Amino acid sequence: MSKIETPVVILNVKAYQESMGKNGLALAKACEEVTEESGVSTIICPQQFDLGWIARQVKIPCFAQHLDAKDVGSATGWVLPETAKEAGAQGTLINHAEHRITIADIDALITRCQTLGLTNVVCTNNIQVSAAVASLNPDMIAIEPPELIGTGVPVSKADPDIVTGSVTRVKEINKDVVVLCGAGISTGEDVKAAIELGTAGVLLASGVVKADDPKTVLLDLVSGI
Amino acid sequence: MSKIETPVVILNVKAYQESMGKNGLALAKACEEVTEESGVSTIICPQQFDLGWIARQVKIPCFAQHLDAKDVGSATGWVLPETAKEAGAQGTLINHAEHRITIADIDALITRCQTLGLTNVVCTNNIQVSAAVASLNPDMIAIEPPELIGTGVPVSKADPDIVTGSVTRVKEINKDVVVLCGAGISTGEDVKAAIELGTAGVLLASGVVKADDPKTVLLDLVSGI
Amino acid sequence: MSKIETPVVILNVKAYQESMGKNGLALAKACEEVTEESGVSTIICPQQFDLGWIARQVKIPCFAQHLDAKDVGSATGWVLPETAKEAGAQGTLINHAEHRITIADIDALITRCQTLGLTNVVCTNNIQVSAAVASLNPDMIAIEPPELIGTGVPVSKADPDIVTGSVTRVKEINKDVVVLCGAGISTGEDVKAAIELGTAGVLLASGVVKADDPKTVLLDLVSGI
Amino acid sequence: MSKIETPVVILNVKAYQESMGKNGLALAKACEEVTEESGVSTIICPQQFDLGWIARQVKIPCFAQHLDAKDVGSATGWVLPETAKEAGAQGTLINHAEHRITIADIDALITRCQTLGLTNVVCTNNIQVSAAVASLNPDMIAIEPPELIGTGVPVSKADPDIVTGSVTRVKEINKDVVVLCGAGISTGEDVKAAIELGTAGVLLASGVVKADDPKTVLLDLVSGI
Predict the structure, then answer these.
(1) What residues of chain C, 50 to 89, have a C-beta less than 8 Å from chain D?
(2) Which of A98, C135, C141, D99 has the greatest number of C-beta atoms within 10 Å?
(3) In angstroms, rounded to a whole number, what is the distance separating the alpha carbons of residues A51 and C25?
């Protein structure tokens, strides 16, 4: 079971120029400071090559952006749950809209993460897929309509029904699953709306990563909680 | 153009339990010591999550095990040349037998690595594929018959013609390309045989990673040069 | 909604030498004769290149073995629901163990098949994945433990709990979904056992395709119903 | 070795609504009529589900749009060279811009096609990839800059150097390889320009498939030869 405190703001830094290497570390430090100052739980998902380096330097949880369901061993270039754990990750995103995997692999990764004590956040694209994933017993589900990702138009405003519908259907199937929402989130008001729609937090990326002053944006975001 | 000195021994640590986290760092340190003691060039390819952490702690070159030909930006969980560079990598494997990519992506990654100053080593599976890749102007080609990978039966003994054939065909097309060989290499004798067949070094994995004493194996390997 | 009569025997001819071209047509004709003689519903999934040719020559339903969730248009070499429909298919397998797809694509294909009037059969590998797929409202789910496929050891004997568990969980979530089972089925006794475990039929392949006399095997299979 | 007469016009009908089922057959018949009337060699690549059905009804060669490098046998939904051959195909496209495959698979498919007597046409995206593929000994190479596909802007006008460069480099490596060009071709003038640049024909799609009167467009196209 996840030991992540909710509500939570998860920052996926993707593969932006603004989040590589030292920039990625600065973003992680900004999250850490915001958590210290506000008491609100934040999580950062560094770029894959930076995970081990950043996870050893911040106190907030670091998550992998993606894992591959390959066996430990001869798997050149693939990223495994066991290596993420060893690198200091406390969890992972699974099945992000930019990195979809098969349903059999989602299922296998959830099981493997649970064995390792890695918190898993499975991304979904609509209400019925959220309901489907709930049957696989993930720790968290992040509903993100792909068409809103990166737009700055928050899902909580553009399509509140997909959020409340996901929360309702997921809880019917498995009340222990934590539901987050993502796509277009960039302000404290968006986060507040997401919480009011029944989620336990948000997953976001460009709104922070590409901001002139990420810490200020993060402070605004957590003010919505 | 590559600044890697040849002959060279490249250690791909794959995704073994024995090469995760601290074990991976110990393998990198062993390579570093062997290079210092022997003067022979070694390169390590850490697990992807460990790249940035290990690259900052050793003087020998660290290479990525694999790169994805995605654009910088919204590419959650994908591993980019730009991030590898920023993490401290000096090069990368491309198209390993366990992680094949399209020919268009091999071509695009070679170009992108050259722009970034990352040395690229493209893996191939037979003579005509080696010849084909030579036209794409990589820095290095590592010929590895997939059926010999992980067997301990060295390609230099089991199939010397594939090595000499690759060297000949590659040099005909592009004399600047450095040719290595891999698969089944585990002793100094294997390395010596590889050099005598016209290669500039070897790519290996399990023979070192799974050894009781990797440094001793590495010292034996470089003794073949 | 599916117009397929149950109980049903679905024959997936895969890509065997014994099921290409004329051999594939002969297998379809054998299914047709068995349905005529026994009154039991059979369905054939011809090799993809043979679909349009075979579907125009038999009265039993022909299903595609797989569909891609690509848009109609510039999709060279991909296989679309709309083309399958036009070719005479009445349905399709989705997410077979040998051709897994993402959960978002399973969801999209189910919706698209419903619009086109194509019956969809989604393959699953364990109880929780069966439950998950039930939330996507497929017409049918075929539970097939991958480790039993092609063994001749019937799932109904080797792992009856995975069958009854899938039936129970699927019906809880969506009572309209028809549950089949597959993997290792080759005799009428296996089919009888599958029906007794609560399924509405079976999905099978090598047991018929590689038989000396497929029609005799099919007659034995339907005798279990 | 290919028995296809050149110059040749290859029509890839892709997965358009206008090329499914009966529409696909009508396009094949139009090609057949144009070949009969003009004496110019044409080839059609029907949609995959239609291949066996159309190949049995026209005298011109039918090619698969794509093949998978899977072994004959348990390969549900994959499309194999052996099945294409049995369905009546005389050849195949390989590595189309909309369906890229690995270099190892291109190599394996070329060899397998040669064994089966299937003519192979490997698509490439630039000069060095054309040169690379030439080392794999394909029957034909079709150079198609991806950014021009479907634009109506002919590669022969927009980027003649990529065509002449490909012809030169390919012939240097393997003078027996036939070079075609594609992308944006829609008139006899485009075909004439392609031939003058040293190619032996063209590969095209939307310009014919989406035309109000495909036969008229085809007649214009072959007039360029």
Answers:
(1) 50-54, 56, 64-66, 70, 72-80, 82-84, 86-87, 89
(2) C141
(3) 55
* Residues B194, B107: Cα–Cα separation, whole Å: 27
Mean residue pLDDT across chain A:
94
Of C59, C49, C60, the C-alpha closest to C23 is: C49
Q: Order of strands, edge to edge, in the sheet holding B8-12?
A: B41-45, B8-12, B201-204, B178-182, B140-143, B119-124, B91-94, B63-64
Query: Any idea how long chain A is?
Result: 225
The domain made up of A8-121+182-222 is a member of CATH 3.40.50.10240:
no
Exposure string for D118-157, b = 16+ CB within 10 A, e = fewer: bbbbbbbbbbbbbbbbbbbbbbbbbbbbeebbbeebbbbe
Q: In sequence order, what are the residues at sequence separation of 6 or more whose Cβ sits closer than 8 angstroms to the Cβ of residue D178? A: D2, D4, D6, D139, D140, D141, D200, D201
CA neighbor of A122 nearest in space, from A105, A140, A109, A136: A140
**Percent of the residues in chain C that have a pLDDT greater than 70, as a whole number:** 99
Average per-residue pLDDT in chain B? 94
State which amino acid sits at residue D7.
P
The structure tokens listed for B83 are: 């991030």
pLDDT in tens, C118-148: 999 999 999 999 999 999 999 999 998 877 7
Instruction: Inspect the interface and report whether the beta carbons of D49 and C47 lie closer than 8 Å.
Output: no
Q: Where are the domains of chain A?
A: 8-121+182-222
Instruction: Report the distance separating Cα A224 and Cα B11, nearest Å.
Output: 49
Distance CA B109, CA B136 (A): 10
Whole-angstrom CA distances from A116 to A86, B89, B171, C212 are 10, 29, 48, 49
D132 to chain B, any CB pair closer than 8 A? The answer is yes
- Nearest to D94, CA basis, from C121, B23, C77, B68: C77
Q: What angle do CA A200, A204, A207 make, to 5 degrees?
A: 135
CB D134 within 8 A of CB D120: no
Helix (H) or strand (E) holding D38, with range, is helix D21-38
pTM higher than 0.90, yes or no?
yes
Catalytic option among B82, B144, B147, B196: B144
Tokens of B63: 């290479």
Q: Are strands C8-12 and B201-204 parallel, antiparallel or unpaired?
A: unpaired
CA closest to D47 among chain C residues:
C77
Is A77–B72 a contact, with Cβ atoms under 8 angstroms apart?
Answer: no
**What angle, rounded to 10 degrees, do the helices at B21-38 and B214-223 form?**
30
Does residue A206 sit at the B interface (CB-CB below 8 Å)?
yes
CB B157 within 8 A of CB B192: no
What is residue A167's three-state secondary structure? helix
So what's the architecture of D8-223 in CATH?
Alpha-Beta Barrel (3.20)
Q: Give the homologous superfamily in CATH for domain C8-222.
A: Aldolase class I (3.20.20.70)
Return d(Cα B168, Cα A10) in angstroms, integer.
Answer: 53
Structure tokens at D167: 């012809």
**CA–CA separation, C189 vs D73, rounded Å?**
26
pLDDT in tens, chain D (225 residues): 457 899 999 999 999 999 999 999 999 999 999 999 999 999 999 999 999 999 999 999 999 999 999 999 999 999 999 999 999 999 999 999 999 999 999 999 999 999 999 999 999 999 999 999 999 999 999 998 877 777 778 888 888 899 999 999 999 999 999 999 987 888 999 999 999 999 999 999 999 999 999 999 999 999 988
The CA distance from C90 to C2, in Å, is: 9
Pick from A12, A130, A110: nearest CA to A67: A110
Helix (H/G/I), strand (E/B), else coil: C143: strand
Residue labelled with tokens 């005509």: B128
Q: Give D70's contacts (C-beta < 8 A, 6+ positions apart).
A: C15, D78, D80
Quick check: is C96 catalytic?
yes
CB-nearest to D74 from C20, C72, C98 is: C98
